Amino acid sequence: MNITKLSGVLGMITLMAGTALAHHSFTAEFDVNKPVKLTGKVTEMKFSNPHSWIYLDVETNGKVVNWALETGAANALIRRGWKKTDLPAGTVLHVDGWQARNGTATANVSSVTFPDGKRLFAGSSNESAPQQ
Description:
Helix content is 22%, strand content 40%. By secondary structure, the protein is an alpha+beta fold. The protein has a single domain, classed as CATH 2.40.50.140. It has a 5-stranded mixed barrel.
């Protein structure tokens, strides 16, 4: 391989590595010192990559706020026992996680618990979160 091709290949590898490292860390967006425990009804579940999202209507003091809840990627959720059919709109959930640093109704999820006690872990990007 000539030097021009080699430098082109090395340049592409460098660009791809930079993109992979640019993915946000937990502490860049969420605050480990702001744990949240939410109870509400699912309005939508988006199985996607690199993160899936649960949208949950939470009522506090008579006001309903729709929270955006980040979980692991779709494949990671499936490996933890999730199914796409687990969270139809109207499903009541108890959610444990951490609020966004900016104070919005956004959180990173550790786990969700159904009224019957079934618990699913969400593949949180928080390194200290349970990962079962």
